[in-house]
């Protein structure tokens, strides 16, 4: 990874929801794809810039963020991450990739790209 992100409990200030895709049925029995929050973790989420951005784009050309959370088996490339800002209620949705486990399933680092609605 481009930059080693320190990880102390006090620095994990972002609330990150890990969501997986599921299918529900509407009143007519039609399948509707939806996202369900399966885990919420405090973590670090930093936008990439400069050399970090260039390094991340070697892995995937549209990387926009780098993050770290305590280990969650729900964080996979098929999941998505939603960060909700507690101050103003705005949110951003990210698609994680290049997910790496550090230690004995203690932490996960990842690159992500921001999804624009």
Describe this structure in words.
The chain is mainly β and 117 residues long. The chain has one domain: Bacteriophage SPP1 head-tail adaptor protein (Thrombin, subunit H, Beta Barrel), CATH 2.40.10. It is 9% helix and 52% strand. The chain has one helix and six strands, in the order E-E-H-E-E-E-E. The protein has one helix at residues 50-59; strands spanning 14-25, 31-47, 65-70, 80-84, 91-102, 107-115. A six-stranded antiparallel beta barrel has the order 1-2-3-6-5-4. The protein is globular and about 50 Å long. It starts with 13 loop residues before the first strand and ends with a strand. 21% of the residues are buried.
Report the biggest beta sheet as strand number plus sense, adding barrel if it closes.
Answer: 6 strands, antiparallel, barrel
CATH architectural name: Beta Barrel
Q: Gap between N and C termini, in Å?
A: 28 Å
CATH H-tier superfamily: Bacteriophage SPP1 head-tail adaptor protein
CATH class: Mainly Beta
Unreliable segments (pLDDT under 50, ≥5 consecutive)?
Answer: none
At the fold tier of CATH, the topology name is Thrombin, subunit H
| Tally of strands | 6
Mean pLDDT, as a whole number? Answer: 84
SSE string, helices as H and strands as E? EEHEEEE
Proportion of beta-strand residues: over 45%
Overall number of structural domains: 1
Radius of gyration: 15 Å
Query: In what order do the strands lie side by side in the largest sheet?
Result: 1-2-3-6-5-4
The share of residues in helices is under 10%
Shape: globular
Secondary structural class: mainly beta
Count the DSSP helices: 1
